[in-house]
């Protein structure tokens, strides 16, 4: 059974998926996250890292995101994301980048630096959901690129197991809150003004 969109224009639509090996963000957790994020602008620009089937970014598009970029290293999952984008009709508002997240930052910068238009550009919402058995947090969150890729008012949400305790800050990323949902946790980061 495929993952289901939990809100917005395509609420209830089921998405394509290929494997029980991936652990998509649960519908309950996506509902909770978007409830917390009610302060975001009406048409946010979204970056979905370790995208899997693309459920989070597609959920954001269903809820009115202006654009979503998906980064996923697995070629089969990239095809599934493309299928899901076409299923929901978001070809003009979404892009799939096949890359290892840790190696994707230069690609993201090069591809979109003209569109970002300086420090006021970038993503309003970044979502990271690596496999729980991985621990890329230090490498990914400590990368100074977030000061450029994210809008000053943007947020970064890290989904991780409750066993993983993330630091209070990584360079300019400052942890604002942490919430537990069963065996999953989310930590919400914002950019420091300094």
Classified in CATH, the superfamily is Vaccinia Virus protein VP39
Portion in strands: 25-35%
Main beta sheet strand tally, sense and closure: 8 strands, mixed
Corresponding CATH architecture: 3-Layer(aba) Sandwich
Main β-sheet, spatial strand arrangement = 3-2-1-4-5-8-7-6
Oligomer: single chain
Distance between the termini: 46 Å
User: What is the chain-wise order of helices and strands?
Assistant: HEHEHEHEHHEEEE
Under CATH at level 1, the class stands as Alpha Beta
Calculate the mean pLDDT score and round it. 83
Low-confidence stretches: none
- Shape field: globular
Task: Give a quick precis of the structure.
The chain contains six helices and eight strands; from the N terminus they run αβαβαβαβααββββ. The protein is of the alpha/beta class. The protein has a single domain, classed as Rossmann fold, CATH 3.40.50.150.
Overview of this structure, please?
With 194 residues, the protein is α/β, with parallel strands linked by helices. It has a single domain (27-191), classed as Rossmann fold (3-Layer(aba) Sandwich). The chain is 27% helix and 27% strand. The protein has 6 helices and 8 strands. The chain has helices at residues 27-36, 55-62, 75-88, 105-116, 137-141, 146-149, and strands at residues 45-49, 67-72, 94-98, 123-128, 150-161, 169-170, 173-181, 184-191. The protein is globular.
